[in-house]
TrEMBL record:
This is AraC family transcriptional regulator. Pfam families: Arabinose_bd (PF12625), HTH_18 (PF12833). Keywords: DNA-binding, Transcription, Transcription regulation. The lineage of its organism: Bacteria, Pseudomonadati, Pseudomonadota, Gammaproteobacteria, Pseudomonadales. Residues 234-330 form the HTH araC/xylS-type domain. InterPro entries: AraC-type_N (IPR032687), Homeodomain-like_sf (IPR009057), HTH_AraC (IPR018060).
Length: 330
């Protein structure tokens, strides 16, 4: 998507592990993501959230309530250096505030906040801007993984006072009750769970001031590098998105980025993508937008996306979405 940013392979690896006992091969789950099995063995591999969401969509197609299972398995140790910085914080409140200061390292698709409501603290996840079809999945994954992080930090389950969700209750609502173990509200104004504010002052069992300072410094450096790479990728995407009707090619885009084609190709590879994958992603997002507006004929949409023939656009759209452009229209 146009606002796609970088993330780690943590969630993708977790999905593959979760489906392994069911005999689902990795190729099925990675289909259409541009992620190769070899990428999973590299600790420094970075992918875009668009790639991650493709794998998530494949998982949801196999099991609609998979977000709850994945969230249950996403422990604080999954967050690398940030996880250790959180575990060694002095208090529970210190750890949560530190987590919120590094959203890029959390890899969240939401804006996370701690909001006071008398004696309650609501841990909220808002401003979701990814695929609407995956909203419930991402809320389930996000809130339940945050609850698991809280439990890991405290060394005991954090008692919840309530949980809210913006969407109607799904047909597997009973599983929500099992996972959150508190009063549930669906069709609410926010996605959040609440706990007693006194927990913020709770000392953490693994607190260590020396280790904490060292981990926080490493988080600061990683965050600077991570956000810098995201900004670079964002510039590439903006340039390419403005030229979909006449894509400049790898050489042309490299010139606009003031680097060689070899350098651009290497940087994109390090970020888990290629020029053609970026171009396809941007064309797909723009195509969905234009088809949803239901104003332009399909041949004109093909022209705006830089296809010389309508048939080529139709073939590409089927490859991207699984359906023809005419079927996608409302």
């Amino acid at each position: 998507m146009l606002h796609s940013h970088l993330t780690t392979l943590n969630a993708v690896s977790l999905i593959l592990e979760t489906f392994k006992p069911d005999g689902i091969c990795s190729q099925t789950l990675l289909a259409g993501s541009g992620i190769a099995s070899a990428d999973l063995s590299r600790a420094d591999t970075r992918i875009t959230t668009h790639q991650e969401m493709r794998v998530c969509a494949n998982a949801v197609a196999l099991r609609r309530d998979i977000g709850l299972e994945l969230g249950r398995r996403m422990h604080v140790s999954s967050y690398g250096m940030l996880g250790y910085a959180l575990l060694t914080s002095a208090t529970f409140g210190d750890a949560l505030r530190l987590a919120l200061s590094y959203p890029a390292l959390l890899g969240t698709l939401f804006e996370l906040k701690l909001e006071e409501d008398d004696q309650r603290i609501w841990f909220s996840a808002s401003d979701y801007r990814e695929d609407p079809a995956l909203r419930a999945f991402n809320v389930e994954f996000c809130l339940l993984s945050l609850k698991v992080i809280c439990d890991d930090l405290l060394g005991q389950p954090l008692p919840l006072l309530g949980a809210r969700f913006e969407y109607p209750a799904p047909d597997y609502r009973a599983r929500y009750a099992e996972r959150f173990d508190c009063p549930l509200q669906f069709g609410a104004a926010t996605n959040a769970f609440a706990f007693d504010r006194d927990w913020l002052d709770q000392p953490l069992p693994l607190a260590d001031a020396v280790t904490h300072c060292a981990m926080v410094e490493r988080c600061r450096r990683q965050n600077a590098e991570f956000t810098g790479r995201q900004a670079w990728l964002g510039r590439v995407r903006l340039l390419l998105a403005a030229q979909l009707n006449a894509a400049p090619g790898l050489e042309g885009l490299a010139g606009q980025m003031n680097c060689s084609a070899r350098t651009l190709r290497r940087h994109l590879h390090d970020l888990g993508c290629s020029y053609q994958e970026l171009l396809d992603e941007l064309r797909f997002e723009r195509a969905k937008q234009l088809l949803g507006e239901d104003e332009l004929p399909i041949y004109r949409i093909a022209e705006q996306l830089g296809f010389s023939e309508t048939a080529s656009f139709r073939h590409a759209f089927v490859r991207w979405s699984g359906v023809a452009p005419s079927q996608f229209r409302p």
